[in-house]
């Protein structure tokens, strides 16, 4: 089954949105496969956002990610990468639809509460980076009423 990497950024943690984010993914029908609250080093944040290293906002983005603890999670389910991006909403909260996490809770693009993998390939890389220790096992027949 497909997996995605979701991170609640320092603003989301400090605003008390951890339960809200987890609730949305749980209620949709996705399985939580790993979760930890961590302070990341600058070099680790730079690695996570390596694709954006040439962007003018890169230094500020890294500074923001290391400014407080983040919640790193792996969620599993059918089409969870694309559906996860929908739950998260557009990068810029100005264009994020109401009903999405960023649409409901964020104002500034540089304080947009949450990260979600943008492709299955990037999800695989991000999960390997953040959870080298591996994921939790669920029973294979868990919640059969959600999936065909
Ligand atoms: P994320 O990686 O955090 O899920 O965000 P994303 O795919 O929706 O957007 P991406 O282009 O990968 O940008 C990563 C994060 O950088 C910050 N950003 N700031 N000031 C700016 O113009 C700007 N553009 C992007 C955002 O926090 C964005 O989530």
TrEMBL record:
The active site is at residue 115. The keyword Nucleotide-binding applies. One of its GO terms (molecular function) is nucleoside diphosphate kinase activity. Its EC number is 2.7.4.6. GO terms for biological process: CTP biosynthetic process; GTP biosynthetic process; UTP biosynthetic process. Keywords: ATP-binding, Kinase, Nucleotide-binding, Transferase. It catalyses: a ribonucleoside 5'-diphosphate + ATP = a ribonucleoside 5'-triphosphate + ADP; a 2'-deoxyribonucleoside 5'-diphosphate + ATP = a 2'-deoxyribonucleoside 5'-triphosphate + ADP. Residues 1-137 form the Nucleoside diphosphate kinase-like domain. The keyword Lipoprotein does not apply. ATP binds at residues 9, 57, 85, 91, 102, 112. InterPro entries: NDK-like_dom (IPR034907), NDK-like_dom_sf (IPR036850), Nucleoside_diP_kinase (IPR001564), Nucleoside_diP_kinase_AS (IPR023005). Its cofactor is Mg(2+). It comes from the Eukaryota. Belongs to the NDK family. HAMAP family: NDP_kinase. This is Nucleoside diphosphate kinase.
């Amino acid at each position: 089954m497909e997996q995605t990497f979701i991170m609640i950024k320092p603003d989301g943690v400090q605003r008390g949105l951890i339960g809200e984010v987890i609730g949305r993914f749980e209620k949709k029908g996705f399985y939580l496969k790993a979760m930890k609250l961590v302070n990341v080093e600058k070099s680790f944040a730079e690695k996570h956002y390596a694709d954006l290293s040439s962007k003018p906002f890169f230094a500020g983005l890294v500074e923001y990610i290391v400014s407080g603890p983040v919640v790193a999670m792996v969620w599993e389910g059918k089409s969870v990468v694309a559906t996860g991006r929908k739950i998260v909403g557009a990068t810029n909260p100005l264009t994020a639809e109401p009903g999405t996490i960023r649409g409901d809770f964020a104002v500034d693009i540089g304080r947009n509460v949450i990260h979600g993998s943008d492709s299955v390939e990037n999800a695989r890389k991000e999960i390997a980076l953040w959870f080298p220790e591996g994921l939790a096992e669920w029973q294979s027949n868990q919640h059969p009423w959600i999936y065909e």
